[in-house]
Amino acid sequence: MSNYKSVLSAVASLAASAMLIRSITNEFIPYEVIDFFNSGLHNLCRKFSTQLTVVIEEFQGISRNQVFEAAEAYLGTKATLSAQRVKASKSENDKNLSFGVDRGDEVNDEFEGVRLRWKFVCRQAESSPRRHHDMNASLRSEIRYYVVSFPKKHKQKIFGSYLPYVMERAKAIKQENAAVKLHTIDYGGYWKVPGVTFSHPMTFETLAIDAELKREVVNDLNRFVKGKEFYKRTGKAWKRGYLLYGPPGTGKSSLIAAMAYHLNYDIYDLDLTAARDNNELKNLILSMSNRSILVIEDIDCTINLHNREEDGEAVTNGDNKVTLSGLLNIIDGLWSCCGEERIIVFTTNHKERLDPALLRPGRMDMHIHLSYCNFSAFEQLTFNYHGISQHKLFQQIEGLLREVQVTPAEIAGELIKISDTREGLEDIVKFMHNKKMLLAKTQIDQNNIEDHEFGEEKSRDKI
Ligand SMILES: Nc1ncnc2c1ncn2[C@@H]1O[C@H](COP(=O)(O)OP(=O)(O)OP(=O)(O)O)[C@@H](O)[C@H]1O
């Protein structure tokens, strides 16, 4: 018993001394010296090891590391086979269950006869500024990375074939299963990761816009995704810009949702007023992942369009120091040379208010005008809401739609009120007649005001 006690106390005092020595060394010996000894020991062990370990961190500076993202998706499919603990999840829009490796857990894999061992590591981020020169990294509370070990002699095969294979597999897995994610900005000025499942109900099947326009947009998107070789051959950055403009309620946000589902790209909803300055904006844009859509809604409202630095005007937007020239520089410059398969969408209700710099050819590749409801959009809406594609009132409605400006949102609002479709379309006709009369009355009032002002001007001239 006394022996047991003395062993215990020896262990306790050894542990205490170790902690003391560790805290003294941490306190008094510079990091660089500790690192030097640590790395010396490490190098010695490494020399005799036949294994090679590759570390794949989640972030590479401010951008998310694509190899990490690929490993995450790929290992999900392997986790069920060899991990001890497996994370299972499925969001509403996911087609299948997804699995993931839990923190600290290991997964085995084999590639062309080479055995590999993966581990998912998470640790608290150190807050020491000496360790994190990058502002963004120091804001993260957790550092996450994968380590993968394999026999050194196969390093050529692993780097040359296995990792590219993991990237390709991950791309296919994401396409097959993943739901579109919506990323918004967090308080710290970076994207919330992993983002929430995007569940807007609109797709190209249900979007009610002119049928010809819809075809054009879908073809353009299809050409874009298949354009890898084209962009490479022509030396152009693999990105595309769309400007959606038109009155409120004509389907700009709906079209963005349809685009995201069609391509299975994540959406990054960039609220320009949430970024403190151009630098933060740059970090946000650079840290988006590939195969994504950057959306800046109501561009004319969220940024002072005339605060271009080259005009020598103020560069502030209220308290916000994001500038249009800053935004354009990031998109044209840095954004073009890193990342691929990226789409940017600006929306506005007032195209005429936009700075010409934004409209310059090559900046926004396609300008899409979403306008008031025409008959082809109306047909789509009645089919969506009531499953009908023919009705005796269609002809009359077609005529009315040529005379009255009514948005798809208004028509949708009326259609949703109808319970008996066959009878209910009468209400749509009434609704449009009322709008037509209101329009005529507003026009008469407007003419009266103008006549009155003209009369006053004339009598002033006489005096
Ligand atoms: N083209 C459309 N096809 C089908 N539904 C539409 C269309 N346009 C509008 N709607 C209906 O009206 C609602 C509002 O439309 P949406 O938000 O897409 O318009 P918006 O042009 O983005 O408007 P805002 O400029 O105010 O943001 C949608 O949720 C949808 O129900």
Which helices and strands appear, and what pairs or packs with what?
Elements (H helix, E strand, L loop, with lengths): L1 H27 L2 H18 L2 E7 L1 E2 L2 E2 L1 H17 L3 E4 L8 E4 L4 E6 L2 E11 L10 H5 L2 E10 L3 H23 L3 E3 L12 E2 L13 H15 L2 H7 L4 E7 L6 H12 L2 E4 L8 H9 L5 E5 L2 H4 L21 H9 L1 H4 L4 E7 L7 H4 L6 E4 L5 H12 L7 H10 L4 H8 L5 H42 L1
Parallel strand pairs: 9-12, 11-14, 11-15, 12-13, 13-14
Antiparallel strand pairs: 1-8, 2-3, 4-5, 6-7, 7-8, 9-10
Helix pairs in contact: 3-5, 9-11, 14-16, 15-17
The structure holds adenosine-5'-triphosphate.
Describe the overall structure.
This protein has 463 residues and is α/β, with parallel strands linked by helices. It has 17 helices and 15 strands. The chain folds into three domains: 132 residues, no CATH class; 174 residues, Rossmann fold (3-Layer(aba) Sandwich); 67 residues, no CATH class. A seven-stranded mixed β-sheet has the order 10-9-12-13-14-11-15. It has a four-stranded antiparallel β-sheet with strand order 1-8-7-6, covered by helices on one side. α14 runs parallel beside α16 and α15 packs parallel to α17. The chain starts with a helix and ends with a helix. 22% of the residues are buried. The N terminus is likely disordered. The site of adenosine-5'-triphosphate has 16 residues, from α8 and α16. This is AAA+ ATPase domain-containing protein. It catalyses: ATP + H2O = ADP + phosphate + H(+). Keywords: ATP-binding, Hydrolase, Magnesium, Nucleotide-binding.
